[in-house]
Amino acid sequence: MELAYIPSPSRGVLYLGPVPLRGYAFCIIIGVFIAVWLGGRRWVARGGRVGTVADIAVWAVPFGLVGGRLYHVITDYQLYFSEGRDWVDAFKIWEGGLGIWGAIALGAVGAWIGCRRRGIPLPAYADAVAPGIAFAQALGRWGNWFNQELYGRSTDLPWAVEITSSADGRVPGTYHPTFLYESLWCIGVALLVIWADRRFTLGHGRAFALYVAAYCVGRFWIEYMRVDDAHHILGLRLNNWTALLVFLLAVVYIVVSAKKRPGREAVVEPGTESAAADDAKAADTKDADVEDGDKADAVDADGAKDEAEAEPTQKS
Questions:
Q1: pTM for the predicted model, two decimal places
Q2: Sign of torsion, CA 152 158 159 162?
Q3: 240-292 residue pLDDT tens
Q4: CA distance 108 to 115
Q5: Phi and psi at residue 232, in whole multiples of 5°?
Q6: CA gap 240, 235 in Å, rounded
Q7: Within 13 Å and on the Cβ side, how many CA atoms surround 262?
Q8: Angstrom distances, CA of residue 256 to CA of 85, 104, 123, 250, 252
Q9: CB of 204 within 8 A of CB of 264?
Q10: 298: part of which helix (H) or strand (E)?
């Protein structure tokens, strides 16, 4: 007897009059807004202009959605092109099915186009938006909860998710909520990147690479728990191999980049060089003022000391 579990919503769409509001799409949209907002704040903190991250996101987000869908359809083609299936369903993105690997890959192409148009280095932009992407993934995973999909093995744990739908071969019951596990992991990844970026002053794409590597670690064990149909290679799910390969590439990038280009970019956006120079000049002036003040204090202290030594002599 289950004492507690996470109930699934009775339906994944709400209607605001004639307008359908789908839970899956809503989670993705809110995630995108958070990613752009946080990325914008981090970009400005690095010396960039307000609005730049949003302008480039106009390129990155559509490319990312197309890439995520393409990856899902290609790796799970049997869901759309096998006997008895309707290939038109491959375009119904609101019903679920976005592969993060394809979303990041093609989204990076869109970001590169946007960055190139503004003369901005893509690695610097990627570093700024990395934690926001992780937070967006954390929210996006709740779309799987609305669609009652991508759950793990059967369990009677108190935090199990209850699956009530029997569509597409689902068996009603309580299962590991892998969507919740991945959501929490992504929040941890975002916080890790923010901390490491401040602690080690990451630059030249290393903050983004850290996000990728940390996400892959979590995705590997979470993917291993899932029970939905997937292609297997040497006993492992295809996404497990993808996570392993991408993790290794991210780690290699961090190591090589740190050796070739240590530190962080001094200027991340054309036209902000003068502002950066003014900040540096102001900092130098402040340091000089402090140094002059210290010297003046030292002179005053020496003078007071000489006076104190002279007083006993005069009295004697």
A1: 0.81
A2: positive
A3: 999 999 999 999 999 999 999 999 998 899 887 654 444 445 545 555 555 55
A4: 10
A5: -115, 140
A6: 10
A7: 2
A8: 46, 21, 14, 10, 6
A9: yes
A10: helix 273-315
